[in-house]
UniProtKB/TrEMBL annotation:
Gene3D superfamilies: 1.20.1050.10, Glutaredoxin (3.40.30.10). Residues 296-331 are annotated as: Disordered. This is Glutathione S-transferase C-terminal domain-containing protein. It comes from Streptomyces kurssanovii. The lineage of its organism: Bacteria, Bacillati, Actinomycetota, Actinomycetes, Kitasatosporales. Residues 319-331 have a biased composition (Low complexity). PANTHER family: GLUTATHIONE S-TRANSFERASE OMEGA-LIKE 1-RELATED, GLUTATHIONYL-HYDROQUINONE REDUCTASE. InterPro entries: Glutathione-S-Trfase_C-like (IPR010987), Glutathione-S-Trfase_C_sf (IPR036282), Glutathione_S-Trfase (IPR040079), Glutathione_S-Trfase_N (IPR004045), GST_Omega-like_C (IPR047047), GST_Omega/GSH (IPR016639), Thioredoxin-like_sf (IPR036249).
Length: 331
């Protein structure tokens, strides 16, 4: 938070890439890297979804940090002994300091860690999912969807840019605003963009083209947190997602698509925001609601056509050990 001013996200990420040709020194190799995430974090949740949609579970292992963290970093308190079983570390910070002992930027998820050295390779969340689609193709499952098709990339990039500025980061600009004026400006931009997205999606099942793409993944991870966190905690309260008919149906459609809702842990999401942001919620009380069962209500979006996975197929069952608590009514 910037008292008296506008919230600005620290975007100084480690931009080293894991590529098919290893041009940055880190070639794609099965079992070499570990994707560290928190189910609480919308940026990390993108990587969780894309990894599952593409079927990379068997070649890119995943470490799941707990939903809360302190000023030092995310911790592996969900694991026995509080240590990641593959990396052997208690805090993600250790992987960043192994890469750069003087590292002084954000310890963020998602992060890709080189298992042999224990050093973080990248935490550039925007590039991580694109590289999963383009650089890991040799290890995609049979029937993996094309989330970043060449002919649609300019449009996907353009949509992603405005969604990031006004929605993905817009909720944070409202929630962490340091003045009434900066909050109001972020609030107006957020809902103006949501109105435009509603218009776009009224006659189209997906954001770009007739299949799920990277653009849908990026919008979904904000929408799925909207009523549970952003509406109240971040004061994004013109109306709830469940009161925006088009976006609510669109979000339910994705939630009910294999690879989306089966990666969402509402308990982790609420604990993170309401416990970590003590300046916004000093009591540390975590809301009991809202009732998540509404996510399973019929959405009617199939009437718009579209093919969720294009020429591909849905992903199979969630990998053992990666299951999330079931929403009431979901087996």
């Amino acid at each position: 938070m910037n008292p008296g001013g506008e919230y600005a996200r620290d975007s100084r990420y480690i931009t080293t890439r894991v590529t098919a040709d290893g041009r940055d020194g880190f070639p794609v190799e099965p079992g070499r890297y570990r994707l560290v995430v928190s189910r609480a974090c919308p940026w990390a949740s993108r990587a969780v979804i894309v990894r599952r949609l593409l079927g990379l579970e068997g070649v890119l292992s995943m470490g799941i940090a707990g939903p809360t963290h302190d000023e030092r970093s995310w911790t592996f308190d969900l694991d026995p002994g509080g240590r990641d079983p593959v990396l052997g570390i208690e805090r993600l910070q250790e992987a960043f300091l192994a890469r750069d002992p003087g590292y002084d930027r954000g310890i963020t998820v998602p992060a890709v860690v080189d298992v042999p050295t224990g050093k973080v390779v990248t935490n550039d969340f925007r590039q991580i999912t694109i590289d999963m689609s383009l650089e890991w193709t040799a290890y995609h499952r049979d029937g993996a969807p094309e989330l970043y098709p060449p002919e649609l990339r300019p449009e996907i990039d353009a949509v992603n840019e405005v969604v990031y500025k006004d929605v993905n980061n817009g909720v944070y600009r409202a929630g962490f605003a340091g003045s009434q004026e900066s909050y109001a400006e972020a609030y107006e931009r957020l809902f103006a963009r949501l109105d435009l997205l509603s218009e776009r999606l009224q006659g189209s099942r997906y954001l770009v083209g007739d299949t799920i793409t990277e653009a849908d993944v990026r919008l979904f991870t904000t929408l799925v947190r909207f009523d549970a966190v952003y509406h109240g905690h971040f004061k994004c309260n013109r109306r709830k997602l469940s009161e925006m008919p088009v976006l609510w149906a669109y979000a339910r459609d994705l939630f009910q698509t294999p690879g989306f809702g089966d990666t969402v842990d509402f308990d982790h999401i609420k604990k993170h925001y309401y416990l970590v942001h003590s300046d916004i919620n000093p009591t540390g009380i975590v809301p009991v609601g809202p009732d998540p069962s509404g996510w399973l209500e019929p959405h009617g979006r199939a009437a718009l056509g579209g093919r969720p996975f294009g020429d591909g197929t849905p992903p199979g069952p969630v990998a053992p050990g990666e299951e999330v608590p079931a929403v009431p009514g979901r087996s």
